[in-house]
Amino acid sequence: MTKETKDFSKYFDFSGAKIISEDEQGKKIRIGGRDIHIMSEPNYRQEKQRGKEEVRVLYDQAVPEELRSLGNGKHYLIYTYGCQMNEHDTEVMKGMFEQMGYTATEDRNEADVILLNTCAIRENAEDKVFGELGHLKHLKTEKPGLILGVCGCMSQEESVVGRILQKHAFVDLIFGTHNIHRLPQLLSDALFSKEMVVEVWSKEGDIIENLPKKREGMRAWVNIMYGCDKFCTYCIVPYTRGKERSRRPEDVIAEVRELARQGYKEITLLGQNVNAYGKDFEDISYRFGDLMADIQKIAIPRIRFTTSHPRDFDDHLIEVLGRRGNLVEHIHLPVQSGSTEILKRMSRKYTRESYLELVRKIKAVIPDVVLTSDIIVGFPGETEEQFEDTLSLVREVGYDSAYTFIYSPRAGTPAAGMEDNVPMEVKKQRLRRLNDLIGELSRERNEQLRGQIVEVLVEGESKNNADVLSGRTRTNKLVHIEGPKEWIGQFIQVRVTEAQTWYIKAEPVHQQTAEAVS
Ligand code: 5AD
Ligand code: SF4
């Protein structure tokens, strides 16, 4: 039965949309001749809730036998926006594509499936995705068999899904961050049904282990937890990534061991707030410090982690990091603002003083630590004085670098409803002043390294000059050196010869390479 509807829901309000059917399989609707199968749609109210329901850990196969030849002779391409969590999700999706028989391509004209793995953190990230969809529309017109998908954080937003249904109905597939493992099934549904398939879960569901991953290079990411319960008032992540769920320590450790066996040189442990790791375990008392202590014993030369929340950074973790070995002396410790009043309105749950106290404790145990940060300027109502508190904190901490952002209102977050009397021109000016200060500090800190010997993991040719190799120090500083291509993938001892703002130049100390000790 077909019936007219004008108010399908808050965001699906298109005159002319018809509901074709509605049952436990979801809704089938038709908009402007396009059939859309909404298996489930995002729901902010549900995303906000933090239920007590148990999170199961599943060890099933994500790619069923019958779909393992779906992509034979076909190509896939994934564009990834945003953070390392998204980069890593892309590696998982690539793994699944390849188990389905697909081959990777960089050429969009060759691709049979194109996915946009999107980021919702700021408005400009979303604008880029909608811009790209505009370009891809032409490709889809030329090649109607192409499957176009949107996944990642933007798919978790009600307003985004509504906008795609309304204005970009040529998209074939929308799925969210909680059901990435459903990609094979959803893709085959989209291919065979010719409908747009929408499946976005508002509840996080289970932790799925054993998903295939296609990693590249010598550095690997490993998820230790998913989601975030912090609900900073400006941030969309708790809504798009769900509640905090930690992977079991034995699963994380097994994955790191396997990567060590495969010869990876560096591992970054990933979570929106890694310091909350283990808080959700009910049967064991095992936190991030314990995990780091166990991972330190594995023969991987370098272990990093990102990202930290100052509130949960405990003394045990500081003590463990002080043991060094493969635990590098770099901590990304986002502060967001140097003003206690603004931090309170951001609901960061620490003060300027307690953050500085944490920095003091870390420096007491790791004197040569490199600290980096995320900072937001122009939060609603931020005064000149409060902004200057941020500048003075940046000086006091002495960051080596920081990612800086102008506050971007995100629909559905508490800060989006706060009164904001700071003109955009003032916000832009503050960003420039902050960036100037950070550039100055970064250069100073790099200058202090001149003449020192540091260990570099050589990653490849420099982006702008193929005769120069580029790599990273333990503290994650970018280094340029001249040397043979055989050094790529090796640890080299170098002497710093020149400091720039965003990188250092160095010369090799020994001609032979030295593996780092763990
Ligand atoms: N506006 C600007 N920056 C934001 N961030 C998160 N949400 C917003 C927002 N609404 C920044 C924070 C966070 C980083 C990943 O992005 O600094 O640490
Ligand atoms: Fe967003 Fe705050 Fe969670 Fe970081 S800790 S992801 S800024 S809510």
UniProtKB/TrEMBL annotation:
Recorded catalytic activity of this chain's protein: N(6)-dimethylallyladenosine(37) in tRNA + (sulfur carrier)-SH + AH2 + 2 S-adenosyl-L-methionine = 2-methylsulfanyl-N(6)-dimethylallyladenosine(37) in tRNA + (sulfur carrier)-H + 5'-deoxyadenosine + L-methionine + A + S-adenosyl-L-homocysteine + 2 H(+)
Matches recorded under Pfam families: Radical_SAM, TRAM, UPF0004
SUPFAM superfamilies found in the cross-reference section: Radical SAM enzymes
GO molecular function: 4 iron, 4 sulfur cluster binding; metal ion binding; tRNA-2-methylthio-N(6)-dimethylallyladenosine(37) synthase activity
UniProt-annotated binding residues for [4Fe-4S] cluster 2: C228, C232, C235
GO cellular component, one term: cytosol
Entry's localization field: Cytoplasm
Keyword tags: 4Fe-4S, Cytoplasm, Iron, Iron-sulfur, Metal-binding, S-adenosyl-L-methionine, Transferase, tRNA processing
HAMAP family, A to Z: tRNA_metthiotr_MiaB
Entry function: Catalyzes the methylthiolation of N6-(dimethylallyl)adenosine (i(6)A), leading to the formation of 2-methylthio-N6-(dimethylallyl)adenosine (ms(2)i(6)A) at position 37 in tRNAs that read codons beginning with uridine.
Name recorded for this polypeptide: tRNA-2-methylthio-N(6)-dimethylallyladenosine synthase
Gene it is expressed from: miaB
